[in-house]
């Protein structure tokens, strides 16, 4: 109840309550969603800028609730983390996307270099069974370890002493590690040189600044140079315009992802996308 508009704190109080109610509703709904198959994985291609050929797909979760409608992952992933459900959800995405990518690898001759890129929450890395679970999925689906990329945010890698040994073990098996949203976290560049990673993903906020000016290119260029010096690969995310794609290419970034090439799509649609992107 908003008794008085002049009491700002009251309005704040109400919205806090609304927030909690919504979170509780979504948590309950999420428990049901897991049992009723409302969660779907969609796939966004990562393409080579030179050829537009897909080299990987990123698996992204979608949730369509019968009453609440479509709930974005930016809302339900944090709730899943708080409710202790992220490990279960994360493993479901991993299993489904590894199986799907392995199917494409065996069915589509062009996709020899193909990888599955899967988001992993910081909490998953702390799960004692995580390493064994990932190995289990690889064994079960037949996807070679070096065809799997785990996308982990910078803060998850840097903040936790737990994360580094886990990532080192995964990399020893051949699994690749990408730092997601690079540049948006708080890690020092000094720490980065010691992190067990293979790929830096340039956050789309920096890609959005690419406007043809050198000032606009400053951060993207710095990230690409840093990657090169450290022997890492760079992937640009959120590429929406041809200007951005051209500029990234000139700066030395060879792989990108974004609406310019394709939006995330259901598995059935990807086959047609892959066929259309073949160089004749
Ligand atoms: P993210 O990992 O940074 O994923 C990229 C997001 O950017 C996706 O949003 C994607 O749809 C969107 N995107 C791709 N290209 C463009 C573009 O050209 N322009 C714009 N404006 N956006 C673009 P989405 O699918 O809504 O996912 C949001 C976030 O939710 C992800 O950010 C990731 O942090 C999280 N997420 C999604 N699926 C999973 C999952 O299975 N597990 C975990 N732990 N997190 C997930
Ligand atoms: Ca990601
Ligand atoms: Ca990202
Ligand atoms: Ca992002």
UniProtKB/TrEMBL annotation:
Domain called EAL: residue spans: 23-278
Protein name: Diguanylate cyclase/phosphodiesterase
Source organism: Actinoplanes couchii
Residue range from the parent sequence: 465 to 744 of 746
């Amino acid at each position: 109840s908003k008794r008085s508009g002049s009491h700002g704190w009251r309005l704040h109080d109400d919205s806090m309550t609304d927030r909690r109610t919504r979170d509780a509703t979504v948590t309950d709904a999420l428990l049901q969603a897991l049992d009723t198959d409302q969660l779907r994985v969609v796939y966004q291609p990562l393409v080579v800028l030179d050829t537009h050929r897909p080299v990987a797909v990123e698996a992204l979760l979608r949730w369509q609730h019968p009453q609440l409608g479509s709930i974005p992952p930016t809302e339900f992933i944090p709730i899943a983390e708080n409710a202790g459900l992220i490990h279960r959800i994360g493993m479901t995405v991993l299993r489904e996307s590894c199986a799907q990518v392995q199917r494409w690898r065996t069915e589509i001759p062009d996709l020899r270099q193909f990888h599955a890129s899967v988001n992993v929450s910081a909490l998953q890395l702390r799960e004692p069974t995580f390493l064994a679970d990932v190995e289990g999925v690889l064994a079960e689906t037949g996807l070679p370890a070096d065809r799997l990329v785990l996308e982990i945010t910078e803060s998850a890698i840097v903040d936790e002493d737990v994360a580094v040994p886990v990532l080192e073990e995964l990399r020893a098996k051949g699994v690749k590690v990408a730092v997601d949203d690079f540049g948006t976290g708080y890690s020092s560049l000094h720490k980065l040189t010691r992190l067990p990673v293979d790929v830096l993903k340039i956050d789309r906020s920096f890609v959005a600044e690419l406007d043809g000016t050198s000032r606009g290119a400053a951060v993207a260029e710095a990230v690409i140079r840093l990657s090169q010096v450290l022997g890492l690969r760079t992937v640009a995310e959120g590429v929406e315009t041809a200007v951005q794609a051209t500029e990234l290419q000139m700066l030395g970034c060879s792989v990108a992802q974004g609406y310019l090439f394709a939006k995330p799509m259901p598995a059935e649609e990807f086959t047609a996308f892959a066929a259309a992107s073949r160089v004749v």
